[in-house]
Amino acid sequence: MPTSAPKTRKRVTSALPEHRADYRGTFAPGLRLQDFSRQALCTLGREYLLIGHLQDRVGLPLVMQQFGEDAYLQFSIDEWMCASPVYSLRMQRALGFEGNDVGTVFKNIQLEIGAPPQFMDFQFRLDSPDYGEFWLSHCGALLDVEPFGEAKVKMMCHDIEDPTFDATAAATNPLMKMRPIHRPPRIPTGRFPHCRWSVFIDQDGEATPYEQHENLPRMHATKLAQLKLSLPEENDAGLETGGWRDYSGEFDPGFQLEDLSHRALIAICQEVPVQIHLLARAYMLCAGQRESDEVALELGRRQWIGAAAIAALRLRSALGLEGDGIDAVAKLFQCHPHFHPRDYIDFRVSITGDDRARISIGPCPALDEGDAYSWFATLGAEAHPALDAIAGQVNAHARCHPATPDGSEVLAWEVAIDRAAAPQEEPPELKLGKISRGVGFGLEQRRTLRI
Which is the most buried residue in 72, 174, 309, 339, by most CB within 10 A? Predict the structure, then answer.
């Protein structure tokens, strides 16, 4: 069922102000995403997508350790079936490409944490609104799992991908299917591309619409899923010129973030953190339904430690953060995707002394979900190791100590660098994540910004 004719893409035509190409220089207390240049937001957007992809490299091994392989498989399926359909529809609305055809699904794949560009190097061919194919010229997930043997490859590429791929497709069209043309285990060894899939709308009169996961209505009802993001006006004089205002035109198999306008990139850099939090929420919901809320909170707490450290490790380099002082620590907290979007998490950062900073959270939807299925539900008046893990990626002597909230703050911490104290040890959750080559994977700018 094809969508209506594609819209003509529009251009931004505002004046060009100064924007940050990275985050070298002085800490800016009121820094906003829109204060970064288009190119810097492209860099952040790619990093955020890969960071979101890697959080499962921490969470799922924890499930394996505690509950075994069957639970690992079920968590892998359930969490993506509960999160991907929600954030796929959000991204369609954010970039103006709502539809029910194959091109719509391909656009979603280009903008989701399940398929971070370059690490999961999806290539596409769209033959018609009802049929297309994609293949992976580089699958980082496959290269991570192949050393563990054929059985683990089959679990990922067959048992997990079959239901989760269809769930993503069905969010756009309940009659859409994804079917493998070939996939791993690779025969012959080293087969390239790593896999190839067909995507089509099943027009057969006997075709049965896909039934989405029973938890999906619960996910849609969360404050996170219903969040409305604040964006600058399209004619805002503070926006850089160039690029597409949205992705409402024809599907472009060569699409990159550099195609988008400043405003659209701001939207991306907020929607991807929503994806991150939705996936974490689905993971913790799986734990709560299988075991208890107490288990959900403990697994979520440990997942957050490793995922927060991985994000900090990658962003320190991507943002060009210099030195090991409190300035770099504060900048890292400011830009860390786990504290975005600010419409969801009212997160504040200030520097209070030579080796001191303050981070705090004000009243916000993230603290008001009313359940145990959020990383933020693991926060309280005591110290939290995820916060230490972030600061520790700049300086191993940095710690986050609980502080008394002031004024409109709900939770607060003092971040202190005590160079005489014993350094932090690397969290075991980070060591788990480092099994993936994605933690050190180098992302590239492959072409220039679209004018």
Answer: 309
